[in-house]
Structures are given as C-alpha cells and as structure tokens.
Amino acid sequence: MQAATQNSQPQYRAYDVVIIGGAIMGAACAWFLSHNEDFNGSILVVEKDPTYQFSSTMTTTSCIRQQFSEPLNIHISQYGADFITNLRARMGNDKRVPELSIHNFGYMYLADNEAFANVLRANQQVQLQAGASTQLLNADQIKQAYPFYKVDDIVLGSINLVDEGYWDATAVFDWWRRQSKERGVEYISNEVVAMKVNVNGTRVESVTLSSGQEVACGQVVNASGPRASATASMVGIDIPVEPRKRYSWVFEAQKPLDRDLPLTVDPSGVHVRENGNGTYQAGGHSAFDPAADYDDFTMDLDLWEQHIWPVLANRIPQFEAIKVTSEWAGHYAYNIWDHNAIVGPHTQVENFFFVNGFSGHGLQQAPAMGRAIAELITYGQYRSLDLSLFAYDRIAQSRPLLEQVII
Ligand SMILES: Cc1cc2nc3c(=O)[nH]c(=O)nc-3n(C[C@H](O)[C@H](O)[C@H](O)COP(=O)(O)OP(=O)(O)OC[C@H]3O[C@@H](n4cnc5c(N)ncnc54)[C@H](O)[C@@H]3O)c2cc1C
Predict the structure, then answer these.
(1) Residue 55 alpha carbon to ligand 1 centre in Å
(2) Secondary structure of the chain in HEC code, one letter for each residue
(3) What is the pLDDT of residue 124?
(4) Structure pTM?
(5) pLDDT for residue 1
(6) Distance from the alpha carbon of residue 26 to the mean position of ligand 1, in angstroms
(7) Is the distance from the beta carbon of residue 282 to the nearest atom of ligand 1 less than 6 Å?
(8) Pocket of ligand 1, candidates 18, 191, 224, 249: which has the most ligand atoms within 8 Å of its Cβ, to mutate?
(9) Residue ID of nearest Cα to ligand 1 atom 21
C-alpha cells in the first residue's frame, strides 16, 4: 500500500469532477475517467481517512463470483474477472503493474431443504445462460469432491470453478490510485460535510469540506460506501442504503484440509474460505442485524464461540481444532430494498452520481462501475455494458430489481 500522506487542501477552487470517497469505487471512477481519452477534465478525490482502515474495501473477503440471480451482476463480474486476469494489459502494459490471477476455488452454496435447492437450480439456469459454468452436485458428489464436508443434511450444492474465488483487490486498488495520480488526479485527505445546490435543485454547485473550503464542481460522484445515505442526504436525497456490520475471523487449523476449501456458504449463512498455508477466513453476522452506527466497528464477542465456530465444526469436523489468529468487523453498504447497486445520476439533481449500495459484492464490481461512471460522465450514456437497470429511477418508481444471492 502507498503511504497515507496526502494533502488536505485542494489546489484549485473548482474541479470538473469531485469524487466523495477514495476507496475502491472512488479509485475505480478516478482511474477510468483519467484514462478515458475523451475526458480532459480535472478530478478531485476527497477521502476522509486515507488509511482506509475501516472502509469496506479494507475489511473485505476479497472474492469474486459468477453465482448471482440477476444476469447483469454476472456480466459485471465477468468484466471484473477479465480486468483482474489481464490487469497489466488493461492498465496500459505498465511493467510495474503485477500480473494477477483468481484463485478459482469457487463458491459452494449448500442447500439443506428443497425450497432452497430449487432456488439454486433456477439460479444455475440463469447463470448458464449468462455464460457461467455453475455445476449442481448432490450430497454424494459433494462428498466425493470434498471429503472433509459433513453432508448428511445437504440436499444440493452449487459451485462454479471458473472466475470464482479469491483475488488481490489491494493490488488493483493501489495501482488505480498510483496511475490516476500520475495522470493528474488530485487526492486530498478531507471530508465532504455539505453540498450547495442551485435554486432549482437541479445541480450541485459546490461541496463544502470539513476544513471550511467550498469547492465548485461540474459533477459529483457519491463513492462513500456505507455512508452513502449520509452523503446523499446532503443534497436532500434518500437512498435505502444502510451500514450493516459483518464480522470476519482468520484461523489456523491444527490439521489443514487436504485440498482447497471453496468459499462455502453454509445453509446457516456462515461462510468460510481457503486463505492459504493452513489458514481459513470465516464470516458471519449477528441474528440481530440493525443499521450500525457509522463509527461502530466493535466485535460481537460471543458470536464466534456461540455460533460461527459450532457451525464450522459441524460442517467440517476437522475445524474442531482451530485457533483464531485475527478478527475484525466491517460494514456492508447494504441496499435494504433490493440488494443491488444504485448507479448513475439522480433524476432531479442531474450532476449527482451514485455508485452505491453494493450489499457485500462491490469489490468485484469496481472495474465495471468505474468504467460505467466514466462513460456516463464523458458521453452522457453507457458505451459498453448498459447498467440502466441499476439506475436510481427504479427507486423513485418503486421497481425493485431483487438480487437473491447475497451473503
Ligand atoms: C466483511 C466484508 C466482506 C466483503 N466481501 C466481499 C467479497 O468477497 N467480494 C466483493 O466483491 N465484495 C465484498 N465486500 C463488499 C466490498 O468490500 C464493498 O462493496 C466495496 O469495498 C465498496 O467500496 P466503496 O469504495 O464503495 O466503499 P468503502 O470501501 O467503504 O469506501 C468508502 C470511502 O468513502 C470515504 N468517505 C465516506 N464519506 C466521506 C465523506 N463525506 N467525505 C470523504 N470521504 C468519505 C470513507 O472514508 C471510505 O474510505 C465485502 C464487504 C465486507 C464489509
């Protein structure tokens, strides 16, 4: 990671684009805009915490999958996989940029009842049609491929081993920022605390920083993650995005598994994945799951002992002997309404752009989102993948587009 030294004051009083939030979405938007040959404007990224310590981006599981129920999410991840696995080429064959791959251990969704098995079956059809390689396995087939699971209660499993697994998001994030800065994008350590809108309420004219300056803006991008609603409320807009606490644990197994562990989604919702060298990363949340305070990252101290570990040890008996080596809490920017992203301009405040509400699957969507916002700002329309289904107007018109596969 780059050192967290950056100016807190903007060099200029006005920018063509101001991006609020500099984690993976802000970085993606800045990179794709600054690398679009048809865009010649100035870009300011305002980030309140340049260590990114509590951002979703830094508290993530860092995986990509093709198993969604909405075809558009599959196409978004397919582009994400292409970008990741051709990173250096996509970033101008810059020799400093690492070559990345996806550790394709797949996601294994386990169903313990016919109703959920039917959901997996229906989703597989959607996924195959969209070009994914999802396979359905019965309990015997699961046991044969992964003898470490206990499958007595399992009706069906769903797994895809193509472009599905872990990837190094930190490397992409880091290189997006480096190359953007080299192209003149300005990052400052500051916080947007207010915005001024014109008298008709159709345009944001300026953002106000916590240090007091007003910065005039041509376009504003809300890339503020779990704080997206707070940012939108500065221009009087409501969006159904809440911070929800999600806990992670890394543990060592006394007797490591003899093959890669897929990112296994137990019917209980607890999930666990391969983490390399005999370590594994588990995740889950409390049964009581209200909107969190923006600054609340305390652990639920009972959750591991009383819920997560017993579930893991039941599903994978080798996980009875394990030792937790680290744990943390992060926030999903949870779209409580339909679990999908909100992308593009507001319907009335036309220069206020959303890139929000990723509900736990935003990291893999960052390449497609950055490209999309760059196209909208540069051309006023999508040029590659059409993300209109994720437009804000579905909220205004009460047309939810439900993504069923969230973790
Ligand atoms: C536990 C966990 C596991 C996850 N696992 C996965 C996964 O496996 N795969 C996947 O694809 N996704 C995953 N996600 C989701 C993914 O991490 C997020 O969707 C993605 O990181 C969102 O990036 P972001 O830039 O929108 O938000 P964030 O990373 O939260 O960044 C928002 C930034 O905005 C800044 N900010 C906020 N308000 C202001 C303001 N007013 N002024 C200035 N700066 C501001 C914040 O400081 C922050 O740095 C996971 C998330 C969590 C929490």
Answers:
(1) 5
(2) CCCCCCCCCCCCCEEEEEEECCCHHHHHHHHHHHCCCCCCCCEEEEECCCCCCCCHHHCCCCEECCCCCCHHHHHHHHHHHHHHHCHHHHCCCCCCCCCCCCECCCEEEEECCHHHHHHHHHHHHHHHHCCCCCEEECHHHHHHHCCCCCCCCCCEEEECCCCCEECCHHHHHHHHHHHHHHCCCEEEECCEEEEEECCCCCCEEEEEECCCCEEEEEEEEECCHHHHHHHHHCCCCCCCEEEEEEEEEEEEECCCCCCCCCEEECCCCCEEEECCCCEEEEEECCCCCCCCCCCCCCCCCCHHHHHHHHHHHHHCHHHHCEEEEEEEEEEEEEECCCCCCEEEECCCCCCEEEEECCCCCCCCCHHHHHHHHHHHHHHCCCCCCCCHHHCCHHHHCCCCCCCCCCC
(3) 98
(4) 0.97
(5) 44
(6) 10
(7) no
(8) 224
(9) 57
Domains in the chain with CATH codes: 14-60+169-240+337-396 (3.50.50.60), 105-162+242-335 (3.30.9.10)
- For ligand 1, say whether the CB of 73 is within 6 Å of any of its atoms: no
Structure confidence by residue, pLDDT tens digits, 89-131: 999 999 999 999 999 999 999 999 999 999 999 999 999 999 9
Cα angle 21, 199, 223 (rounded to 5 degrees) comes to 10
CA-nearest residue, atom 27 of ligand 1: 225
Report which protein residue has its CA nearest ligand 1's atom 2: 60
